[in-house]
């Protein structure tokens, strides 16, 4: 079986699923949905609030595959900052500091920033090269 032919489609599926799960983190931080975050909602204009705003804006772009590389790059940077600012100071080991998801998101987003959105991205329709 030729698995390589599925790679572009799986890239799109990875992008969509990652964006949907990441959006859930944003809605939890900003709106307390689907459940309130541990410690409650972040105060408006706090660092966590700005992070949630970046996530709530960037996730739909990622899900739709619109401006995919830019959105993924910004979200990757946000996750790197989240890890080094909030998780690493607690403990050196990601399993113990709760930062394993932040690291994983950081590198998945970085991969998408480099690889693009795949065939199911609006980028391929909106920015179709003519000629």
What would the keywords be for this entry?
mainly alpha, single chain, 131 residues, 66% helix
Written description of the protein model:
- The protein is mainly alpha-helical.
- It has one domain.
- Helix content is 66%, strand content 0%.
- It contains 6 helices and no strands.
- Helix 1 (7-31) packs antiparallel against helix 2.
- The longest helix has 25 residues, at 7-31.
Helix-strand string: HHHHHH
Overall tally of domains: 1
Q: What is the β-strand count?
A: 0
Proportion of helical residues: 55-70%
Tell me about the biggest sheet? Answer: none
Rough shape? Answer: globular
Distance N terminus to C terminus?
Answer: 34 Å
Radius of gyration, taken over Cα atoms and rounded to an integer in Å: 16 Å
DSSP strand (E) fraction? Answer: under 5%
Average pLDDT metric:
95
Report the uncertain regions: none
Kindly name the structural category: mainly alpha
